[in-house]
Amino acid sequence: MTINEVFRIGGDVEVRRIGFGAMRLADTEHERSRAAAPVWRGPADRATALEVLRTAAESGVDLFDTADAYALGANEELLAQALHPYRDGVALATKTGVLRPSAAEWIPHGHPAYLRQQAELSLRRLRTDRIDLLQLHRIDPGYPLADQIGALRQLQEEGKVRHIGLSEVTVAQLTAASAVAPIASVQNLYNLAERGHDAMVDHTARLGIAFLPYFPVARGAHAADGGVLAAVADEVGATRAQVALAWLLHRSPHVIPIPGTSSAAHAAENAGALRLSLTEEQVRRIGAGVPGDVPV
């Protein structure tokens, strides 16, 4: 099965369909390995983090996703240090709408003035005049959704934001937000083992809205020795992570996985998943979690 290698977010931001999620480029190696990494400070090994970002770009990645909440803005500064001046075609995606009063707290905050202020700070840290994709990190139930999206729309009208996206939303919330401003993307948790947003994948496909699955590489039974990813990886001469990403690419042409890593080698490996072709039988087998070559 062949796949489309590019997708136009919002109809005009053309990106290759493997992006890079920069969240993991924070803290120490020990902290990153924890189940709930704090993402509180910049990377202890800054030189390696810069190498990871530059390797991703050299491997063809042109969509880089970050957030103002990652390391209190230091993640955005890291991205700019690695890639600025940005080559033609690089698309910057960031998120706003979460407070970090401590390393353990992630608190949605959707006051419209706060969202606009944080976008201004993101512009400075990213060293750009316009953010290609500004995503509402979380909807804050304390403020009307129309006011939160309206703040992002104001930034868009001012030319500071190209497209608006949402993160961790339902179909109903997407519909409500779309009544206020055009929504170009949705970023939800989705991978082989976590498919609770299947309905959102299908819904955004119908609307032509980009779907950016975060934590896209499945862990657990799917990735275990003797599991389906191991079997298909052996068949196609790839790694299990590449097969997991390829399955997402085959899921729908509007799906753009944004895997993150703190390893330059893994960044290049992830980008290589875009060249991996799976058969229809392999795609079905992976989706069903069946390691052997049996009908599903």
From TrEMBL:
**Domain spans labelled NADP-dependent oxidoreductase:** 17-286
Read off the Pfam families from this record: Aldo_ket_red (PF00248)
Q: Which UniProt keywords apply?
A: Oxidoreductase
Query: Would I find Oxidoreductase among this entry's keywords?
Result: yes
Q: Which domain of life is it from?
A: Bacteria
Q: Which InterPro entries match?
A: Aldo-Keto_reductase, NAD(P)_OxRdtase_dom_sf, NADP_OxRdtase_dom
Q: What is this protein called?
A: Aldo/keto reductase
